Amino acid sequence: MKSSFLFAAVLMTGMAAVAQSGAISGQVSGIPRAKALPGAFPPPPTPAVVYAVPLSGKALTPIADKTYTVDQKWTQFVPGVSVVPVGATVEFTNDDTVKHDVMWKAIGNDTALGRNLGVHNPDQTVSYRFTRAGAIHLQCLVHPSMSAWLYVAPTGYSTVTSTSGKYSLSNLPDGRYRVVVWHPGVATQSQIVSVTGHAKLNFNLKK
Known about the structure:
The chain has 1 helix and 17 strands. By secondary structure, it is mainly beta. It has 2 domains: about 45-60 and about 160-205; about 60-155, Cupredoxins -  blue copper proteins (Immunoglobulin-like), CATH 2.60.40. The strands form 5 sheets. Strands 1, 13, 16 and 17 form a 4-stranded mixed sheet that branches. Strands 12-2-14-15 form a 4-stranded antiparallel sheet, with no helix packed on it. The protein has a 4-stranded mixed sheet with strand order 4-3-6-9, with no helix packed on it.
């Protein structure tokens, strides 16, 4: 009898935890596309960053205790757009056969936060811990054509859109959130949504 009671209690606790874990998903339309060369197919659009800030003030949860990676290969930063939470450490790995550099002039609009991590050889890795939120334009001084965007979000509830503009944020406790969409080519947009289970929220970016 006692074991049956404990099993029921554990089951109810598990069901309650599932019920309190919500999600937000939707479509981000109007993402700008790069112009294609004459006779070529247009490249896929640059992804947008989507993140949800709890209006309860617990904006920094969950922060995954892990290291994020941005590769340098084929004389490119890969991925071209990525998002990490405040406090994350990012490793920049040179997977090319030539030397590379990693630098940025500002985080957001704060030029005092600009850094140059220096030139590193093939197979070498340099890392940096980002403690301030904002958009970062990554560059390589050795190869000026190389650039990418790293967005440091003030929350762990973040993602980038798929090639079709879809996004999904999961494992959100029930509550109200400000959902923000950032893209390097358009103005930032945000909406407020209440999550009780699964919420749908779409955006239409405009230049």
